[in-house]
């Protein structure tokens, strides 16, 4: 028998809190409550276990075992990120599908004008609910608070796992991940940040990958002139600046 625990006893919690707090116990309960075929089908529709349409040389298909091989202990560990493998490109494509409200569009490394046709992978209402719940991850109480971007609402998820090595998993080497979409109200960008064997005494996805997401995606949103969807808090009284002499102001109406 193997016991799975959270770092802190969270008591009875809803799914949004399971995501926000990265509850291993909560994810195990959810995974065990679903038919294995349903989990496998959803992951397959999101592109796991298959190469993308991007045509990148040597791209890996990752690993998604057939659901007939799954056992309860395997389902639990899979819900924690073990027992399957996925490339950053596949994961980013999955987030893009969620941000596209369930439509999986082709992956391309070339600039494509306009919206590309795609196939339905998830129901639109499900994606709206999931995006809303994933916003709780990027709050002051969530594990991904450092992924916050001033002026924009962000939906995403942290991930931290022992690194796969020959014969199993390391016990002191990690992969830290943060993936998400922004702006949450009308997603324009999806991105995944993977830090391979982070150091400097920190290894959690929320500590080392989330801040990179904030800087990179935040900069990209500004370069693309994407309108903010969240007010930025400013001090009631701004600090006094240097004297500039007579300054004329104008208003545009």
Describe this structure in words.
Strand 4 (168-182) and strand 5 (189-196) form a beta hairpin. The protein starts with 14 loop residues before the first helix and ends in a 30-residue tail after the last helix. Helix 2 packs across helix 4 (72-79). The protein has helices spanning 15-20, 24-33, 36-45, 72-79, 88-99, 124-135, 205-208, 210-223; strands at residues 103-104, 119-120, 155-165, 168-182, 189-196. The relative contact order is 0.11. Mean pLDDT is 89; it is low at 241-253. The longest helix is centred in the C-terminal third of the chain and has 14 residues, at 210-223. The chain is an alpha+beta fold and 253 residues long. The protein has one domain (15-223): Beta-lactamase, CATH 3.40.710. It is globular and about 55 Å long. 30% of the residues lie in helices and 15% in strands. The strands form two sheets. The protein has a three-stranded antiparallel β-sheet. A two-stranded antiparallel ribbon has the order 1-2.
CATH topology assignment: Beta-lactamase
Write the H/E string, N to C: HHHHHEEHEEEHH
Main pleated sheet: 3 strands, antiparallel
* Amino- and carboxy-terminal Cα gap: 70 Å
> Which word captures the global form?
globular
Count of DSSP H/I helices: 8
Query: How many β-strands, per DSSP?
Result: 5
User: What would you call the structural class?
Assistant: alpha+beta
State the CATH architecture: 3-Layer(aba) Sandwich
Stretches where pLDDT is under 50 for at least 5 consecutive residues are 241-253
Radius of gyration: 21 Å
In the CATH scheme, the class would be Alpha Beta
CATH superfamily: DD-peptidase/beta-lactamase superfamily
Provide the number of structural domains: 1
Approximately how much beta-strand content do the residues carry?
A: 15-25%
Let me know the average pLDDT: 89
Biggest sheet, strands in spatial order? 3-4-5
Helix content estimate = 25-40%
């Amino acid at each position: 028998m193997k016991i799975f625990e959270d770092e802190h006893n969270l008591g009875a919690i809803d799914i949004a809190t399971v995501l926000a707090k990265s509850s291993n116990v909560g994810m195990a309960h959810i995974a065990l409550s679903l038919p294995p075929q349903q989990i496998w089908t959803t992951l397959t529709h999101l592109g796991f276990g298959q190469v993308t349409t991007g045509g990148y040389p040597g791209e890996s298909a990752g690993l998604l075992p057939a659901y007939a091989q799954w056992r309860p202990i395997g389902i639990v560990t899979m819900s924690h990120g073990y027992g399957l493998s996925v490339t950053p490109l596949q994961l980013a494509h999955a987030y893009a599908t969620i941000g596209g409200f369930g439509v999986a569009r082709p992956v391309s490394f070339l600039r494509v004008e306009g919206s590309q046709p795609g196939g339905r992978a998830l129901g639109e209402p499900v994606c709206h609910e999931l995006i809303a719940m994933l916003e709780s991850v990027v709050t002051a109480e969530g594990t991904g608070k450092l992924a916050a971007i001033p002026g924009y609402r962000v939906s995403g998820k942290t991930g931290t796992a022992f690194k796969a090595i020959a014969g199993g998993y390391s016990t002191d080497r990690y992969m830290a991940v943060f993936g998400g979409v922004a702006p949450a109200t009308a997603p324009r960008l999806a991105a995944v940040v993977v830090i391979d064997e982070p150091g400097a005494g920190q290894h959690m996805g929320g500590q080392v990958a989330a801040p990179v997401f904030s800087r990179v995606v935040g900069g990209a949103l500004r370069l693309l002139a994407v309108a903010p969807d969240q007010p930025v808090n400013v001090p009631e009284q701004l600090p006094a600046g240097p004297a500039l002499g007579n300054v004329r102001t104008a208003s545009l109406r």
